[in-house]
Amino acid sequence: MMLRPMRPSDAEALHEVWSDAEAMRYWDWPPTRDAAVTRSVVARQCEEAKNGSALYWAMCVDGRRAAIGACDLSEIDTHHRRAEVGFLVAREFWGQGYAIEAMRAIVAYATNALKLERLSARTHSGNESSARLLKRLGFVREGTLRAFVWREGTRRDCEIYGLLLPRSLDEKPRVSASRKPRPSTSKQASRKRK
User: Does the pTM of the predicted model rise above 0.70?
Assistant: First the structure.
């Protein structure tokens, strides 16, 4: 499996994924039947990648030119050194390790190339396979975003996961140079009075 920057021509292959109701079951948007919508979304994502606010990759496997899925680093915040990750794989490729392989590459890229210190991921409640994948990568469940997504007339809860990258763990917390006075005990107070 290899990752390459997403390009507008990936829209046709990704439309197969985005129009699949089962693949889109735990996604923010329902499956789309309109290929023009998919082309528009892919074009917007390519523009976001050009301006650096997000990075999108097509997941490709040997022997296939067409993308089997996509993954991303979005909400990139260089000041706070953090971003959000996401991934979606065509159903016929589920359970073959492509998603975890892609996400390992994304985590390494975020750590080494972008020098990020924190990644977050969001899953819809009930998406146990994505939750397991994130936990295998070291992500920790941090809480529930109640009624976070509005989809097809229903509010959905999402689970938020976080991963602190090695650089953020290596740095020691900064301690103020000035020390606050400690409260004295009654024995110390009586000694000072003498």
Answer: yes
